[in-house]
Design a protein that fits this description.
single chain, alpha/beta, Rossmann fold, globular
Amino acid sequence: MGLLEGKTAVVTGGSTGIGLAAARRLAAEGAHVFITGRREEELAKAVATVGDATGVRGDVSVAADVDHLYEQVRARGAGLDVLFANAGINHLARLVELTEQDHDRVFDINVKGTFLTVQKAVPLLNDGASVILTGSTAGRRAVPGMGAYGASKAAVRAYARTWANELSGRGIRVNAVSPGPIDTAMFEQVFDTDEKRSSVAAHVPAGRAGLPEEPAAAVAFLASPQSSFIHGADILVDGGELVA
């Protein structure tokens, strides 16, 4: 018996990276996992590797797509026990280079998308459910070129604290997981040369970028009864980046 046997979970942005690793881990703990992603082919491949999972294509920044996701969850008839609001993007650009369109896209997905994902889930959340948001160490650091991304993740962190208070009356816990540099497709896209990736890893006391399975382990912990007294926290999975 896994820690989440018989539970229902949603993972947004679950086609790749941390989201996919988390979906696999939650399924391995016994949950049926609904996974979202914007690209149909990529989503189908991901679902095939997870096990007990349902793929629902959609963009979290589009309200109708989020409604469609929860229609599928509602149809299963078991409510929702775990929500991992993970979908996000990054765009590396300094202040004088950042376009309005790129700024808005980062906030549409990372902030508005997180808001829609959680707000629209509330009627489906079972009492005692766990909500987990993906933050980032960038929300606490002043990294040149990552102003929009860092600001969006600071907003997500604020959401976690506030929603933990607002939903506590139903025993619903809201927490954040903030990864440092994790070896994912997005990490390789943003830091697009071996030299850049090595430079980032060199500033991490662990001496390397993390694996997607490492923040996924923190997600599984927060999803489970083992974290029953953790509310409004921001769990760092950063290899010590913030203490360097």
